[in-house]
Amino acid sequence: MDEPLVEMVTAKPQPQLNPLVAGYTGYRIEGAPPGVHRGLPSRCLTFILTLSGTVDLASMPDPAQPPASFTTLIGGLHAAPTLISHDGHQHGIQLHLTPLGARVLLGLPAGELANTVIELGTLLGPVAGELLERVRSASTWTDRFGALDQVLTKIARQRDGPAPKLGWAWRRLAATHGRVEVATLAREVGWSRRHLSAQFRREFGLTPKVAGRVMRFEVARHLLCAPHRPGLADVAVRAGFYDQAHLHREWRELAGCTPSWWLTEEFPSVHDSRLDHEAFSTT
Amino acid sequence: MTPASAPSIWPALAYADAPAAIRFLVEAFGFVETLVVPGEGGREIAHAELRWSEGGGIMLGSTSDDNEFSRRKPGMSSIYVVTDAPDALFDRATAAGAEVVRGLRDEDYGSRGFTVRDPEGNLWSFGTYRGT
């Protein structure tokens, strides 16, 4: 049995949690060659509960933060790759937390976590331990996701969401997968471009321009993971890039490598594939 | 990902207690969950997909008043699954509490396998025969 074991399961949370968590991904990889996995930018915050082992970050989104290992982690939106070194064993659950989810479940705007990775307990206290214990003691993914549903429903509070104009701007940007111009967005909300950018960044952690780039990048990544993968030129056009060269430049910047390199080296990889289309249409 | 390509036939089952059924199918037989979609309210499963390591998979959901499929009476299905390791699988299934309907045996058509009942009554046959 030299074939590595790769188990991956995707799930949706209970409907009332959907605006807060776009999806769950359970993963278990055993016996793969040791290597480095790229945590790529997306429109969701990163929320990981390990089922065994740790997540070892070799480089943080903010180079000023030293490398660290985590049993549970939460990371804000980012626009550069995070490097995770592994020994061929990775086992855990990733929750795709929306900015609204950060407000309602963690009690703070996503912007406060921008370019940062911290232990979940720092924000959730003892609930972090309870979450970990519940998912680790369950024997199926279905039961683990069911436990997450229960605990998250319990800690969801009636809290203020982002300011209405900012929430609207985020949803508009997300609905168009980053294809609406920032000037248009500013006009639509009735703010100056500069004011929108500053407020947006404070709330979400990225400026609308960068968030739009991340969303287009995400669409391209999704197309690259599709069962019938289109050619790179087609991916570029469909994700809203001028051309293939533009797609390449953006990948170098946001992923630190070219799409072809990533496909060869990393695909299929646990944190990055099999998200439903639905996961892209959230708050 | 499972090494096998995507199956083009999926048996679809309904269970009164879908999370418990999934627990059983994973623990007793070694099915691997690949997708879980909860239904409205409580812990009801609207749709789940489980893969078989030697190829193929099943879909299942909770019984409910929702639709024609979820209203079906659970426990009425019979499914045959191909395995190259019937002996080890028999041990695993019985250790997990599967009710034996037909013990491990060699058939005159050259297959080796067994049949057990899942907690809601469906019959699961496992054997080395791959079809002609």
Textual characterization of the structure:
The complex is a heterodimer of chains A (283) and B (132). In chain A, 41% of the residues lie in helices and 20% in strands. Chain A has helices at 99-106, 121-124, 126-137, 141-155, 164-175, 182-189, 193-204, 208-224, 232-238, 244-255, 259-266, and strands at 5-11, 21-30, 35-39, 45-52, 55-59, 68-70, 72-75, 82-86, 90-97, 117-118. In chain A, the strands form two sheets. In chain A, strands 1-2-9-4-7-10 form a six-stranded antiparallel sheet. Chain A has a four-stranded antiparallel sheet with strand order 3-8-5-6, with no helix packed on it. In chain A, β5 (55-59) and β6 (68-70) form a beta hairpin. By secondary structure, chain B is an alpha/beta fold. Chain B has two helices and eight strands. In chain B, the strands form two sheets. Chain B has a four-stranded mixed sheet. The longest helix of chain B is centred in the first third of the chain and has 12 residues, at 18-29. The chains are: A alpha+beta (283), B alpha/beta (132). β1 of chain A pairs parallel with β2 of chain B, so a sheet runs across the interface.
Helix/strand class of chain A: alpha+beta
Strand order, biggest sheet of chain B? 1-4-3-2
Using CB atoms under 8 Å apart, which protein chain pair has the greatest interface? A-B, 22 and 21 residues
Instruction: Quote the distance from N terminus to C terminus of chain A.
Output: 43 Å
- Approximate strand percentage of chain A: 15-25%
Strand order of the largest sheet of chain A: 1-2-9-4-7-10
Give the biggest sheet of chain A. Answer: 6 strands, antiparallel
The averaged pLDDT of chain B comes out at 91
H and E order of chain B: EHEEEEHEEE
User: Percentage of helical residues of chain B?
Assistant: 10-25%
Largest sheet of chain B: 4 strands, mixed
Poorly predicted ranges of chain B (pLDDT <50, ≥5 residues)? none
Shape summary of chain A: globular
Oligomeric state of this protein: heterodimer
Spell the H/E element sequence of chain A. Answer: EEEEEEEEEHEHHHHHHHHHH
Radius of gyration of chain B: 15 Å
C-alpha end-to-end distance of chain B: 28 Å
| Number of helices, where a helix is a run of at least 4 consecutive DSSP H or I residues of chain A | 11
Give the number of DSSP strands of chain B: 8
